[in-house]
UniProtKB/TrEMBL annotation:
It comes from Onchocerca volvulus. This is Uncharacterized protein. It comes from the Eukaryota.
Length: 87
């Protein structure tokens, strides 16, 4: 067992996984497989996203290049439409 561990190429496996990971490499491009493309073409079109409130918020974030202040702590509902609970 000890002999098998010494000959196992841990370095090559770790480096190949790390270099293919989108968080660790700088030239990352998204890869679209055919079954994902069919779903994206059906459900992620701008017309389909404009039908719901969350889709409109998502589309707004995509158009504005997903700035951090839009993705976090962003109140997309107006003040008068929010639920007010009595103290």
């Amino acid at each position: 067992m000890l002999l098998g561990c010494t000959f196992r190429p841990f370095g090559a496996v770790v480096m190949s996984v790390r270099n293919n990971c989108p968080w660790h490499r700088s030239n990352w491009r998204p890869v679209y497989f055919p079954f994902f493309v069919k779903h994206k073409l059906k459900h992620n079109t701008p017309e389909a996203l404009m039908k719901s409130r969350n889709g409109r918020c998502l589309l707004m974030r995509r158009i504005l290049r997903e700035k951090p202040f839009l993705g976090w702590n962003h109140q997309c509902t107006p003040r008068e439409e929010r639920v007010h609970y009595p103290l």
